[in-house]
Write a structure and sequence with these properties.
Blueprint lengths: L2 H25 L6 H8 L13 H48 L5 H27 L6 H42 L1
Helix pairs in contact: 1-3, 2-3, 3-4, 3-5, 4-5
């Protein structure tokens, strides 16, 4: 990668890391995030933290939230859209960098596909939930069921990446310790 492109890549990656951290903190807060949703709903978790939820679960949460809570949840999902994009970039950047340093480049394309597919399902899920909120009290059962499946798929696609990440990190640690053991 030419030097200028590398610096741009690193700058965008750093920016995405900061955005990812900021949105993650906001989404965990009472003011903008899941704690606020739990408070407004009487203890329910956001749908995107419940893999495989049912249409009944979605209907119950949206009803428990009330109009103020549904507006709050919409803001939460808009923040989540920014998180999804920045986290996807960060995942790909980590995958590329760690694969190069650990010697596991053979998995880069596959792990990148997993990362981007996870982000795609996350975006589909957020879009579906935004539509469910907008159409409340009417609840399109098929859309609610699909949103629950999208949530399950985003988590399912995260798992292989986390396993690969762990394996690559262990391999890198062993590779870095190798010269010490020989010396």
């Amino acid at each position: 990668m030419p030097n200028r492109r590398r610096w741009i890549w690193m700058l965008v990656t750093l920016l995405c890391a900061l955005v990812c951290l900021g949105t993650w903190i906001a989404m965990g807060s009472d003011a903008y995030g899941s704690v606020g949703i739990a408070r407004l709903s009487g203890g329910d978790a956001p749908l995107d933290m419940q893999p495989g939820y049912t249409p009944e679960d979605a209907a119950a949460l949206l009803e428990h939230l009330g109009s103020e809570g549904r507006a709050f949840y919409q803001r939460f999902l808009l923040i989540d859209l920014v998180f999804i994009a920045s986290f996807a970039w960060l995942q790909v950047a980590i995958t590329r960098g760690l694969a190069r340093k650990s010697g596991m480049q053979v998995f880069v394309r596959l792990m990148t596909v997993f990362c981007l597919a996870r982000a795609g399902f996350d975006l589909l899920e957020d879009t579906a939930v935004l539509i469910l909120i907008a159409q409340h009290p009417s609840l399109p059962t098929g859309l609610a069921r699909a949103a629950g499946i999208f949530t399950w798929l985003k988590f399912a696609l995260l798992v292989p990446w986390l396993i690969w990440l762990t394996a690559a990190a262990i391999r890198l640690l062993r590779k870095n310790k190798q010269p010490e053991a020989d010396g």
